[in-house]
Amino acid sequence: MTSTTNTLTRYVQYRTTDGYVVQAFTWLGAPSFPAGAGYAFVADAANAYTPGNTYATLAVSSAYALSGPATAMAGSAVTLALTPNNSGPGADVTVTLSDGGAGGTFSADTVTFGAGKDTAQSVTYTPKAAGPVTISATNSGGLTNPASLSVTVAAATA
Fold first, then answer.
1. Which InterPro entries match (predicted)?
2. DSSP-based three-state secondary structure for 51
3. In the chain, what are the domains?
4. How far is Cα 133 from Cα 90, in angstroms, rounded to an integer?
5. Tens-digit pLDDT profile for residues 89-116
6. Contact 75/131 with Cβ under 8 angstroms?
7. Percent helix, strand, coil in the chain (nearest 5)?
8. How far apart are CA 20 and CA 97, in angstroms?
9. Please, what's the b/e burial string for 61-77 (b: 16 or more CB within 10 A of its CB; e: otherwise)?
10. Beta 121-126 vs 105-106: how paired, if at all?
């Protein structure tokens, strides 16, 4: 299922080497085109940057973390958290979750980190059966994926 965003968002394009802002523009949703070699986009809803300013390039997310409990009970939901490092990615990034075919269910198979936003995302995971489960996450935006989360699932009690 593909979702669309009908919100105009202000972005700036900057050089990744020194943070020099080269342009500002408004786009419907996330930019659908690449920033170009040596450049990146970041949402700027507060109009904090104009061409000629310097954007703090070190603040853009390069990775994200996956956390949750190491133990669970079959049939009982647990909460998982996905958190971008720094101030969020330069463009919207979709993260896809997997339990490696263990048969459990996620409240959402994907979450999105918004451009320039460091907001953690949470989902619940309900394991199907007892045994070890490995939960992994991959992303669409070139961020470094976190280590997989190992969960030991106990049998449901009667």
1. Ig-like_fold (IPR013783)
2. coil
3. 8-58 (no CATH), 64-154 (2.60.40.10)
4. 32
5. 878 899 999 999 999 999 999 999 987 7
6. no
7. 0, 45, 55
8. 35
9. beebebebeeebebeeb
10. antiparallel
Map tokens 């199907």 to a residue: 128
Q: What is the pLDDT of residues 64-74, one digit of tens each?
A: 999 999 999 99
Alpha-carbon dihedral angle through residues 65, 107, 96, 6, given to the nearest 10 degrees: -100
How far is it, in rounded angstroms, from Cα 15 to Cα 3? Answer: 30
Tokens matching residue 129: 């059966």
User: Is residue 90 classed as helix, strand or coil in its secondary structure?
Assistant: coil
**Residue of 158, 146, 155 whose CA lies nearest to 65:** 146
Q: Which residues of the chain have pLDDT under 70?
A: 1-6, 56-59
Tell me the backbone φ, ψ of residue 81, rounded to 5 degrees.
-120, 140
The answer to whether 124 touches 155, Cβ cutoff 8 Å, is: no
Sheet architecture: strand order including 8-15: 21-28, 8-15, 39-43
